[in-house]
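Re: the 236-residue chain
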Amino acid sequence: MSLPDQIKPRKLADEVRDRLLRLIREYGLGPGDALPSERELMARYDIGRPAIREAMQALQHRGVIEIRHGGRPRVAEPSLDGLIGQLGTGVRHLLAHTSSMDHLKEARAALEAEMARIAARRRTAVDVASLEALLAAQELSAEEPEKFLEIDGKFHRRIAAISANPIFETLAAGVFDWLRDFHAEAVRKRGLEQLTLTEHRAILDAIAAGDEGAAAKAMRDHLERANELYHQDHFQ
């Protein structure tokens, strides 16, 4: 008969963090509302300042509260973009390992293929016109690597935005930015700008035609081609 795992005591700061989250929920605090001061929390919970500050910093890191010098902590405005940005340090560590890179790129291909499928179903004439404008701008910047890459990211994010699901759009932008910032070679291959433009044209045309299957396939082919080229360079 095996004994149950040992119950480990919780860190004091973790307990304070959870109590603050309950306080926010139970009092219905919204963005901009102030939380009790450090001194008030120390008196309420009968604990020292270090645990209070550690708990506050953990909540700030998660995008739950804002801490400003000289003022009380306040409930933060919810922001998907902000949350994705805060994950950057952890992502840098994650992407230091090739297996994690493979997983991220595989997830990106699956996610963006589905977003292209949804975009083909929901696109409007305005959506198609915006993609055309981005592709035209990208063609003009084929000799400017940084600008070309910037517009590349905008093209993918615009497709995600057509889904009308802000989580899709934020995730697509976040993954692209992580790869660009930490492994630029995974999203940029010098000398293949015309191939990228051709593949973007195939994606755009399928979306404009409302062909969900073709849009998903064109997007997956585009991203998997890029992944394969990264592998060739990386392992050589």
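Residues 230-236 have pLDDT under 50 and may be disordered.
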